[in-house]
């Protein structure tokens, strides 16, 4: 209970920091907000970009066996039939007869101890729902009268490219996951590159789902960004490659400085029929261990379905032994915002010294939104400001830097600590005479003097 | 005419290169393609990412007066009323009575020499259309019978967050331009940063428009990515800042290695009522000079509208002189894909030597999808392959590299020339003895020997 309170407080502190320092803003705030959507502010977009850069480096740049892709959000609607999303990607919803709010029936049943399986038909759910009438209350108004349960598809529909009025009959979907764009480009990649199985295709992009309950800040939102790598394997080697991928992905989070005790594997017990094995990497968020990434062995389902629905044979001919087979796919799939939130939670630190509390984001240097802050000791001494600007102008060509001459140095350190800036440089009167500056380290607050002429080399060694 | 033919050929060559070498694939190709949407393949995504990185560096990283943002695609629908898009962002369409294809009436009128002004009402357009009946033929079937002209809104509609069936009544729009996300976050940025006017907010993101005629490859598509910077100024300084921004943006393209003779300014003659001045930077595409970027002075329209519609006062108080005003906005807005296409057209080179033609992409090193290709001279000599892999493994930690041991060295050079790789390294028998490799320069094809131990430093000097 005490632990819960502490965790709620941590979540509140992070949400508040995000707003106050420009990491995350609620969407359309001046219009009263909008639909569990969030915008990334000035520091947020830098953090988010740095996360994506590190992911791309780990998943594409340093891997000879993986290439990148950036497929569009919109695709042929038949793709979503082939994938099973049109028929199967839905939540059971009912409407409260009193307040007309819509509720997730599976969640309400779960709360009274009934597990409503994904595969359960509508009739069966309705029956259970009816049997438990009275026990189930509307979360908004407390009443226990609901309409019949209906399935609501999670794919977001649009009228893209449809110039009639009744486009609802043939909706064009926004993608519900980015991986379908990879599957349908499998052959294009094979034909235009020299890749041979096993190989992977990686991409970062947005996906959309009509979740009725978006919640926990940026953890679950209707618009979200995925970083996915789909790896095509020989069926005989699927599970061997799967184990390698699991290890690789675990180590990725350690390389971002995430504390290993805050990560754990969660094995899926109820697999979808085609899956071989599925594990999630969970992070210990303030609201409990929850999915950060999925690492799943998907068998040959995806390419088989797209072969069937497109009429194009997507099987692979291994020219070294003339073996022909439908590739099996293992995937790594993670949300940018979930990584973002895990990184913030993991880095958030309060250090007490006597009555004073220092709030510092001990974020990995690679991810820090600002790498170096440059201060003139006093803002009203033009020669200090000039020299500090000179240092700033030189370093900013290579690193994200910030110039700050506002308030005393202590306050400026605190401002940078809050956003996780690893290095602060102060230009003082000695700098003008001796050509050196004070460099202050975020984590241990130690200071040293360093020659201005050596700064670029120092940071190239310490930041790249 | 000869020039036209040459240009059509160039366009065909570029489209073909894009497909063959994995820069751009038509979306959903195995399903017969989809709706003028394109996917970026392995080299395309690298080029596109490099363009965005250079834009971000020029517009955010090295500018003390600009911060970044990443606002969501979905926003409060009232924002699109405030911006004027719901009432005014539409094309006049009619339907051919014979083949039922939809036509842009303004385009058809233009073809017979009639300028259908944007501000023209529906009644007036219908009258002109009727008067010219017989002269106007359907571009698809040649017949001259059409339905009445209707205005069709370009905003793409969706059912995001709407769990009813009749969501068409209150559609949620996909954003038609990214800048609205900047305007509505103006106050959030002011409140969470130390920015003071003049300052800018920059962002890169997707936007969507229901264009009836998407065309010219990736030049005009219904889903597209914008790179925009909106700069907030004191009304008295709007035009001074505007001139600075125009110069800055022009120089940006030169810094990407675009030939200056392929760029020109186009001044808008018919300004929308609130605009002060509007220029486009046009690039000389194979289909003629066309808009690459817009640099527009928008006055106080945007913040005034959002103040009115949101009920939140977005005026700015200058604390240095207690002056209060509605900021005026100047904007720079460019499409990633238009820059991508301009870069490819500008870099595409054929060099004839006797009967032989070398196709080479003379693309700026900063933008090249692959920076360094590493070859073992012979693939069947394990000691060469091993040494080449060692070099590759070392360099790939810092640069996008490619390993290639397929075919003779000449062929490998050609493959890299086609995708614009600035440097090729060959590991030969001398490398094993003397520890140096041949480095071959893309543009002049000159070769030199360089010590393996010095490669990292060499490329850090030449590529960062």
Architecture overview:
The structure is a homodimer of 464-residue chains. Helix content of chain A is 34%, strand content 26%. Chain A contains 15 helices and 23 strands. Chain A starts with a helix and ends with a helix. The interface between A and B is large, with 87 and 87 residues.
How many helical stretches of chain A? 15
Specify the overall morphology of chain A: globular
Our measurement of the CA-to-CA distance between the termini of chain A, rounded to an integer number of angstroms, reads: 43 Å
Low-confidence stretches of chain A: none
Strand-pairing-aware structural class of chain A: alpha+beta
Strand count of chain A: 23
Order of the strands making up the biggest sheet of chain A: 3-9-10-16-13-12-11
The share of residues in extended strands of chain A comes to: 25-35%
Largest sheet: number of strands, sense, barrel closure of chain A: 7 strands, mixed
pLDDT averaged residue by residue of chain A: 93
- Largest interface summary: A-B, 87 and 87 residues
Rounded to an integer in angstroms, the radius of gyration calculated over CA atoms of chain A is 26 Å
Quaternary state of the chains: homodimer
Helix content of chain A: 25-40%
């Amino acid at each position: 209970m005490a632990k819960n309170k502490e965790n709620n407080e941590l979540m509140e502190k992070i949400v508040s920091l995000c707003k106050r320092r420009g990491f995350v803003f609620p969407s359309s705030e001046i219009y009263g907000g909008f639909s569990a959507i969030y915008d990334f502010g000035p520091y947020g977009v830098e953090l988010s970009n740095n996360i994506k850069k590190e992911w791309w480096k780990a998943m594409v740049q340093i891997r000879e066996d993986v290439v990148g892709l950036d497929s569009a959000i919109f695709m042929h609607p038949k793709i979503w039939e082939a994938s099973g999303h049109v028929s199967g990607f839905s939540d059971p919803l009912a409407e409260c007869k009193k307040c007309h709010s819509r509720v997730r029936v599976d969640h309400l049943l779960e709360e009274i101890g009934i597990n409503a399986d994904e595969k359960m038909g509508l009739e069966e759910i309705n029956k259970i729902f009816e049997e438990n009438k009275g026990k189930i209350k509307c979360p908004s108004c407390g009443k226990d009268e609901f309409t019949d349960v209906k399935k609501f598809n999670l794919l977001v529909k649009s009228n893209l490219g449809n110039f009639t009025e009744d486009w609802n009959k043939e909706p064009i979907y926004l993608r519900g996951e980015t991986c379908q764009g990879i599957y349908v480009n499998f052959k294009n990649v094979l034909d235009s590159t020299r890749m041979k199985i096993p190989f992977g295709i990686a991409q970062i992009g947005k996906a959309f789902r009509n979740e009725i309950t978006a919640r926990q800040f940026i953890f679950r939102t209707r618009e979200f960004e995925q970083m996915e790598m789909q790896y095509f394997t020989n069926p005989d080697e699927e599970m061997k490659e799967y184990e390698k991928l699991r290890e690789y992905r675990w180590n990725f989070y350690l390389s971002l400085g995430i504390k290993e005790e805050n990560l754990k594997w969660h094995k899926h017990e109820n697999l979808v029929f085609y899956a071989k094995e599925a594990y999630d990497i969970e992070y210990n968020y303030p609201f409990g261990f929850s999915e950060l990434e999925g690492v799943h062995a998907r068998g040959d389902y995806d390419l088989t379905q797209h072969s069937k629905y497109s009429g194009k044979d997507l099987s692979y001919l291994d020219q070294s032994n003339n073996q022909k087979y439908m590739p099996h796919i293992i995937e790594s799939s993670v949300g940018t915002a979930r990584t973002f939130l895990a990184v913030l939670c993991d880095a958030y630190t309060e250090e007490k010294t006597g009555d004073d509390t220092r709030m510092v984001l001990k974020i990995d240097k690679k991810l820090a939104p600002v790498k170096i802050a440059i201060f003139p000791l006093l803002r009203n001494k033009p020669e200090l400001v000039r020299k500090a600007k000179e240092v700033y102008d030189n370093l900013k060509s290579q690193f994200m830097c910030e110039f700050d001459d506002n308030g005393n140095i202590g306050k400026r350190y605190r401002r940078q600590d809050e956003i996780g800036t690893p290095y602060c440089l102060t230009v003082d009167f000695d700098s003008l005479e001796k050509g050196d500056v004070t460099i202050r380290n975020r984590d241990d607050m130690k200071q040293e003097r360093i020659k201005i002429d050596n700064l670029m080399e120092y940071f190239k060694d310490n930041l790249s």
